[in-house]
Design a protein that fits this description.
single chain; alpha+beta; 3-stranded antiparallel beta sheet; 2 helices; binds zinc ion
Length: about 120
């Protein structure tokens, strides 16, 4: 392959990378809450045999919103309010979107760098 073709191909890769960077910036501009983790909605039994929850699944206590995430390398769980859970849900969604965009950006960067080497 002629050098001019190689550089044209590399320029195409760079254009793709710029578009990807723009996609990340656009998404970032719309985001506020961003955090990795997971959210679980649970119901619980209180342990009192006289309580309705002991025999009736529908009568279990809750729902409780449990937020799990890593803090300093340790998995931590926290019970949060329904209002907090809405923010956590938003933060986790934003985080996943960014991770997806960054992953694509990383892959395109690798392809661009490899393409340049192969055609030199
Ligand atoms: Zn109970």
């Amino acid at each position: 392959m002629k050098p001019s073709t190689a550089f044209r191909e590399f320029d195409e890769h760079k254009s793709r990378l710029r578009l990807q960077a723009e996609a990340v910036r656009k998404q970032l501009a719309e985001m506020d809450f961003v955090c990795p983790g997971s959210l679980h909605v649970r119901t619980k039994v209180c342990g009192k045999s006289s309580c309705r929850c002991a025999n009736d699944v529908e009568a279990r206590h809750g729902p409780y919103y449990e937020w799990s995430r890593y803090e300093g390398g340790r998995l931590v769980h926290r019970i949060i309010t329904k209002e907090q859970a809405k923010l956590v849900e938003r933060a986790i969604d934003s985080c996943r979107t960014l991770e997806r965009l960054f992953h694509r950006w990383h892959e395109q960067t690798v392809q661009a760098i490899i393409a340049l080497k192969n055609h030199k």
